[in-house]
């Protein structure tokens, strides 16, 4: 493990990092308000510099990513008179490519997004709930892709209709009392799942395959996975709970981890494939090398702005492979809007939970389409390849895994390959993926938590959150409720700090003065011990 040193200025802001090995060093500069102004990374003979742009109100107006002084990726953001993001775009050569947004009157809900390729995305909502009922991608008056959603009384999707390229598919979903997915029909294929009382799979039947049985140990780790008459596969974990022998859709892999529990080496002996990864000081994967039969087939270096990947570079030739442009109206669970690669640019299409479902060319026609199993195994059809797929995260094609910055998801088993880094503070099951609530929840960085509501106490129980540059760390428990600045009870029903809690979704943010408060947004809560109505 390499050693590194850091330097802090008198305001206790990190201004530099250096390593004892070949890991690139970084330097940072801040404006008078303590906001990051530049992020400077030196790799070999090149300096990679991200310069943040802000307006007179301190709002982000975009950034410029430059290599050795030459601008490579320029992003701009504009605001309307109401303060909401109205435009955002990037430069393709010298030509600006701009997305624009319209919002529903009297709300912050987006209604129309216009793309620079002439397409639009139109959202429709239920009359009495802020639930998306339709998503329609149009090219002029032509409906290119159309999705319709129907929900139950608990806001869980029960049906989804997708019309795309002349084909219409009707999907359906069923859940148990814990809102875990138990049955689904997706793209004409049927799926069924059962779980124990903490969320581990007991059985799974996917499409026409034989049922798979799971055996779980006392640490919620799968100890045996058996399908039909096949010999049982026995996963292996190390002392830190990292899975060191995994089976994915691409085969069986041996995995080695570093001291920070990041996977650094994957080996598939039957395919003679080795995947090696390195990480920076924030735990972001900054290189990925793939070797087949001892020959390097791919070696990429990644550039980030925060935890969002913005560029990939061939680590041998120095050629840029792609640039990514992300939706600035979604600062937490970001969605990709466009990718620049091979001298062209393409727009993304996604579904309700942010899964990339299509790639559109500059003329507005579908170039690649994606379909997924309930837990994220992907099938792609088309002529444009790109890495951002399930949950708007990086799909490791060779591994059959999805990279979420903090952890890898194995869609084959529907769970993480390593423990939750905050351990039981984020939930009792350290490996469960969004509580098996696949079709109405998505994860951020692999760190989602659950907020629980008590009927008796009229309170929301969460885990204390420290929000630092979009890193969410959960520590000790604390309770929040009432109609104070937390706005859990905006109609002032009953006494202050006594509920009831209105239905909806909640997001936890940090106060400037310290502590935390809750605001209705995008963290799903559930009823806490509601069976006997006494807690």
UniProtKB/TrEMBL annotation:
Residues 482-501 are annotated as: Disordered. Residues 478-523 form the Tlde1 domain. Keywords: Repeat. Pfam families: TEN_YD-shell, Tlde1_dom. Residues 130-420 form the Teneurin-like YD-shell domain. InterPro entries: Rhs_assc_core, T6SS_VgrG/RHS, TEN-like_YD-shell, Tlde1_dom. NCBIfam families: Rhs_assc_core (TIGR03696). This is RHS repeat-associated core domain-containing protein.
């Amino acid at each position: 493990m390499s050693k590194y040193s850091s330097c802090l200025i008198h305001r206790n802001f990190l201004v530099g990092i250096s390593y004892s090995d070949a890991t690139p060093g970084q330097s940072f500069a801040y404006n008078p308000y303590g906001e990051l102004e530049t992020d400077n990374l030196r790799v070999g003979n090149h300096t990679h510099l991200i310069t943040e742009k802000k307006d007179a109100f301190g709002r982000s107006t975009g950034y410029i990513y430059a290599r050795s002084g030459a601008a490579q990726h320029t992003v701009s953001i504009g605001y309307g008179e109401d303060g909401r993001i109205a435009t955002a775009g990037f430069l393709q050569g010298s030509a600006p490519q701009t997305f624009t947004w319209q919002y529903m009157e009297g709300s912050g809900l987006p209604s129309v997004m216009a793309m620079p390729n002439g397409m639009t995305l139109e959202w429709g909502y239920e009359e009495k709930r802020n639930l998306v009922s339709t998503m329609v991608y149009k090219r002029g008056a032509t409906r290119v892709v159309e999705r319709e959603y129907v929900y139950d009384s608990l806001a869980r999707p029960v049906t989804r209709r997708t019309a795309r390229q002349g084909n219409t598919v009707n999907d359906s979903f069923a859940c148990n009392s814990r809102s875990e997915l138990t049955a689904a029909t997706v793209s004409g294929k049927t799926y069924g799942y059962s779980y124990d009382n903490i969320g581990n799979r007991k059985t799974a039947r996917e499409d026409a395959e034989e049922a798979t049985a799971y055996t779980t140990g006392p640490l919620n780790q799968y100890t045996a996975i058996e399908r039909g008459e096949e010999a049982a596969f026995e996963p292996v974990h190390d002392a830190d709970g990292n899975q060191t022998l995994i089976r994915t859709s691409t085969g069986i892999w041996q995995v080695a981890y570093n001291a920070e529990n990041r996977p650094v080496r994957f080996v598939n002996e039957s395919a003679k494939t080795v995947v090696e990864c390195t990480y920076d000081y924030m735990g972001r994967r900054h290189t990925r090398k793939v070797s087949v039969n001892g020959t390097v087939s791919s070696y990429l270096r990644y550039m980030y702005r925060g935890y969002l990947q913005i560029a990939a570079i061939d680590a041998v030739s120095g050629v840029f492979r792609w640039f990514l442009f992300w939706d600035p109206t979604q600062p937490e669970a970001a969605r990709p809007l466009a990718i620049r690669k091979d001298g062209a640019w393409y727009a993304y299409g996604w579904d309700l939970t942010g899964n990339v479902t299509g790639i559109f060319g500059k003329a507005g026609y579908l170039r690649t389409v994606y379909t997924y199993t309930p837990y994220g195994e992907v099938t792609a059809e088309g002529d444009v390849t790109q890495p951002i797929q399930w949950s708007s995260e990086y799909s490791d094609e060779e591994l059959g895994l999805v990279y979420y910055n903090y952890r890898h998801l194995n869609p084959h088993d529907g769970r993480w390959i390593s423990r939750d880094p905050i351990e039981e503070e984020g939930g009792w099951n350290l490996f469960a993926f969004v509580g098996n609530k696949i079709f109405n929840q998505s994860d951020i960085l692999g760190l989602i938590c659950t907020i629980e509501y008590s009927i008796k106490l009229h309170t929301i129980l969460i885990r204390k959150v420290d929000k630092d540059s979009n890193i969410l760390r959960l520590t000790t428990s604390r309770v929040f409720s009432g109609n104070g600045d937390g706005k859990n009870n905006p109609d002032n029903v009953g006494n202050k700090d006594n509920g009831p809690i209105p239905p909806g979704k909640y997001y936890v943010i940090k106060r400037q003065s310290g502590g935390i408060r809750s605001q209705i947004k995008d963290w799903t809560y559930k009823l806490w011990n509601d069976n006997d109505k006494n807690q």
